[in-house]
Amino acid sequence: MGCNSSKRIEANVDVYRPPPSSFAVFDINSIQEPWLVVDNSAPEKTSSVPAPILEKLNKFETDAPRSWDEVSKALQDLKPTLNNKTPIATPSPPQKPDTTPAQVAKTNQEKKQEPIRKSVSFHTLEELEAKIAPKPEKELKKTESVRTLSRKVEVVNKTESRVGTEPVTEPSGGGVIRSVKENIFIVRDRLERGKEGKPLKKFDPLSGFEEKCPPGGADSVVLYTTSLRGIRRTFDDCTRVKTLFELHHVVFDERDVSLHGEFLNELRDLVGEGTSVPRVFIKGRYIGGVDEVVELNESGQLGRMLVWARVGRVEGRQACEGCGDARFVPCLECSGSCKVLIDGAKERCGKCNENGLVRCPTCL
Prior knowledge:
It comes from Populus trichocarpa. By secondary structure, the protein is of the alpha+beta class.
């Protein structure tokens, strides 16, 4: 009974305690809601009631209740203190200096001499009708005469400034587009040279080319070409030169050396033996072949030369109805055979060329 085995054994086991983050430990009642917390730190509102009245009211609040007669009597006592306010000091107007009668008369005289300005506005219906009413005929005639005189003066000035210049074009917008020749410095220099008797030098773009005039080509553009396609490069060069002049809408005289032997003789007399086509002549000046013409066209000088030469121009390509722009037609006498019968014998036709062709009468 008293053995060791019968003794009570105490267990050394700790009691279970939940962690601090457990829901069982969390006390929701200990949280203070922000919307339930009263903030007493708000600033006091200032009242607009005067201080004497507030003192009386505070006195009535601390003391026992008062009757209406006592309250009205206290308010009547406060009336003199509220009405007795300090007036605001207003600046006194500046005192004018003493003026003598002579000075007053002088100022009145100056006011009379000042011009009276007419007001643009109107105050009565009669004034408005007088402004809207048409002017009399005399005043209208005066204004019209002044306008015509000013226009005449402008026209005279314009004609004087246009001496030796191109006409001025007036666009629809109302502005005036003037050429460089109407520059005031250029016009002044021109007038000074005219007074001194010096001749006016005009730049001629054709002056740098050699004078070689083909027959009948003093006032036109003459092209020596060929229509034979035996040498393809020569034919292409002739076509290229003709296309350039067609793009400039220029009327030119094409002389085909393959159709007429006299054209080839003319070209040899002008340029020399062994020259190839195409060859260009403008107003009796020898321009050159295809390379020279293409270079002048790319630099813009060819267009200036044609404008200066004032050659004939045409819009679009217009081929001749008689020859189809070939410039030659078969001979009507020999029908292109170059032979005619004279007294039963065949002889050479004297009206056509070596190819049996004659110049187109329509082109001529």
